[in-house]
Specification:
The protein is an alpha/beta fold. Helices cover 48% and strands 12% of the residues. It has 3 domains: 1-32; 39-156, Up-down Bundle (de novo design (two linked rop proteins)), CATH 1.20.1440.110; 159-292 and 328-397, Rossmann fold (3-Layer(aba) Sandwich). It has helices at residues 5-9, 13-32, 41-47, 50-53, 57-63, 68-77, 83-107, 110-129, 136-153, 206-209, 234-249, 266-277, 302-312, 317-325, 354-362, 385-397; strands at 161-167, 170-177, 187-191, 214-217, 259-264, 283-287, 340-345, 367-372.
Length: 399
């Protein structure tokens, strides 16, 4: 019997025991070194990144659509903790699929082109994520990721339409997908979270399109193609959402009276803040959103703080904390008048599960909750989550 991805990712008891023994060993070594940090570079040179990154395989695969084989092979080749080692090997994997995808386009093999180019775009994005500075290398990787995705989108069914959304006097790119055979379908605006982009968001448009609704996916300010033009702050985030709604309502082939927002993590916060004052929104889904981040900032993962610092363009963690302390949804959720679905995983390692209690408690009726006991951040590890969310949206919009 073939081994499934789930079987490969699920740790059995032996692996759990070995991992705990390994962790105990590292703690013992740390004590021997009297608390001084361990230099893992020689170990990574010998073993590669694979043993150290197994816990992240699920995120690579469930949240980003990577294949187990590609993740395992690429991490096995990475022999240094330096960012250039990570970006170089993921670029190598991406270029392999990029070449295969473009060959498939030339040969008229659309299905193969979509699969290969989508993988290439994903892996260029993985390479880009390791570079936390606006260098020519990062820009080149972003261009490669976008180009491969756009090429793939031309051959998808239905195809992806690259459009321009008006925001603060700018025209920012977004991706529109229309369900086949639907006259003036309802619309779902998808707002990705921190570290995610419109090419590779944390909520798949396919589950919406399959239910007869159109989707538009945007970049948050400070991320993706919006980064050179808009910094990430509350005003700009709300402007992106409202600009996208303006664009969608300007199209006669879409039903602007049936429009929903879906946001994940920071994208959920942007969607909620926009819905506070925008009555054109007829349904709202917030997935793993936050309520008052300064209340739990001390437990926020250091790596994500570093990425957020890069996105916001601040030099120190004190400056970062000052910005975070200014963000609070208390007293604002109650102004949302459309139906609200609150989605959160109890095992979320990034945004505490308790934030969903606070959001739901303040929200007015009609409101519903989807809670997943094993759900991680964004519930990307819960197989039924996206389908159930899409069903809820369809029921609200009459799709």
């Amino acid at each position: 019997m073939a081994t499934t991805t789930r079987q490969l990712l699920t740790s059995d008891r032996a692996e759990l025991v070995m991992r705990r023994l390994g962790e105990a060993g590292w703690r013992a070594l740390s004590r021997l070194r009297k608390g001084r940090p361990l230099d893992l570079e020689p170990v990574v040179r010998m073993l590669g990144m694979r043993p150290f990154a197994r816990r992240f395989y699920g995120a690579f695969i469930d949240a980003n659509g990577a294949s187990y084989a590609d993740v395992d092979a690429t991490l096995g080749r990475i022999r240094s903790l330096k960012p250039e080692a990570w970006s170089g090997e993921w670029r190598r994997t991406a270029q392999h699929y990029d070449r295969l995808g473009r060959e498939a386009v030339q040969a008229g093999r659309s299905a193969t082109a979509v699969e290969m180019l989508t993988r290439a775009s994903t892996y260029y994005r993985f390479a880009e994520m390791s570079i936390l500075s606006d260098t020519p290398e990062r820009a080149a990787l972003e261009r490669a990721a976008v180009d491969a995705f756009v090429q793939a989108g031309r051959h998808m069914h239905p195809p992806i339409e690259r459009v321009e959304v008006p925001v603060n006097g700018l025209l920012l790119p977004a991706y529109l997908r229309l369900p086949r055979g639907a006259a003036r379908p309802p619309i779902v605006l998808i707002v990705p979270g921190l570290g995610m982009v419109k090419e590779h968001g944390d909520f798949p448009p396919e589950v919406i399109v399959d239910r007869g609704m159109a989707t538009l996916t945007v970049d948050l300010p400070g991320q993706g193609e919006s980064r050179p033009y808009l910094s990430l702050n509350e005003s700009n985030a709300v402007a992106v959402v409202k600009g996208a709604v303006d664009y969608l309502l300007s199209r006669e082939d879409l039903d602007g009276d049936r429009l929903a927002l879906v946001g994940t993590s920071m994208g959920a916060a942007a969607a909620m803040l926009a819905a506070v004052s925008d009555r054109r929104v007829k349904a709202l889904v917030e997935i793993a959103g936050f309520y008052n981040p300064s209340a739990w900032w001390g437990s926020f993962p250091h790596e994500i703080k570093e990425f957020l610092r890069y996105v916001l363009g601040v030099a120190t963690h004190d400056e970062l904390l000052e910005i975070v302390q200014s963000v609070n949804l208390r007293g604002r959720i109650s102004d949302i008048v459309c139906p609200l679905l609150v989605v959160h995983g109890e095992m979320d390692p990034i945004i505490p599960f308790g934030e969903s209690h606070l959001i739901f408690a303040e929200a007015r009726e009609p409101k519903e909750r989807l809670i997943f006991s094993s759900g991680d951040h964004g519930c990307v590890n819960v197989g039924e989550a996206h389908a159930l969310i899409a069903d809820w949206i369809a029921s609200q919009l009459g799709a």
